[in-house]
Amino acid sequence: MKLTREVDIFQCPPSIKYCFMPFDMLEPNTVKITDYVRVWHGEIELNRVPEGVEENKIQRAICDKCFNHFQDGEDKTFFGRSLTTSDIIRVKKDNTFYYYYCDFFGWKLIKTQGIGTHGIGR
User: Fold this and answer.
1) Predicted TM-score of the model (pTM)
2) What are the residue ranges spanned by the domains of the chain?
């Protein structure tokens, strides 16, 4: 089956002290969404998703698809650098946002919040 999720990609400027740092090296509550700039918004579709797949696996697959898609610089709707450590992908499912930190290897879920709340803490 096909699944679609609304996605935002955020990148912080290199002047932010934790830019490009792995998540386990950060102090608690270091990551703030206000330090970031949204560089892309849209929908990402996954094809051939088996019935019953857990939502967290779907969201990580969405993050991986974003990572692979935006590496080549050919998508004219993307205004950021290649995705790298410290970037954040926000996946929306129903009325909840899930924030994934691009870590040295893979994605770290750092925050889940309902619509209307702000900021990200560790």
Assistant:
1) 0.89
2) 3-114
